[in-house]
């Protein structure tokens, strides 16, 4: 793929808000763009690396008989209650209620 057609451009400017050298280099090289404080978007150059790693992992899992699985990030609160972890000490889970009043939790 030609660099001239990839979405995102390299920048010459050094961003004043970057504390880490690596952060500034990723911004300047066109790997990421900052949306808001702590929120970044992967641009195509940065997206390629995790995609390639995923392909290698899938090949290795298939070779040893493993299977890929996808689970939701948000779970019903009753799952956490059955496990006895809904009220456990630790970082506060993200909780929300659906339109019917059902509780959902994310940890």
> What is the string of SSEs from the N terminus onward?
HEEHEHEE
Q: What composes the largest sheet?
A: 3 strands, antiparallel
* Low-confidence segments: none
Rg, Cα atoms, Å: 20 Å
| Strand-residue proportion | 15-25%
Alpha-carbon distance between the two ends: 39 Å
Total of domains: 2
Read across the widest sheet, the strand sequence of neighbours is 3-5-4
Q: What integer is the average pLDDT? A: 79
Q: What is the helix tally? A: 3
Structural class: alpha+beta
What is the helix content? 25-40%
Q: What general form does the structure show?
A: extended
Number of DSSP-assigned strands: 5
How are the SSEs placed, and which strands pair?
Layout (H helix, E strand, L loop, with lengths): L20 H9 L2 E5 L2 E4 L1 H20 L11 E2 H7 L10 E4 L5 E4 L1
Antiparallel strand pairs: 1-2, 3-5, 4-5
Report on the architecture of this protein:
- The protein is an alpha+beta fold and 107 residues long.
- The chain folds into two domains: 61 residues, no CATH class; 32 residues, no CATH class.
- It is built from three helices and five strands, in the order αββαβαββ.
- A hairpin with a 5-residue loop joins strand 4 and strand 5.
Describe the structure using short key phrases.
107 residues, alpha+beta, 2 domains, three-stranded antiparallel β-sheet, two-stranded antiparallel sheet, 3 helices, 5 strands
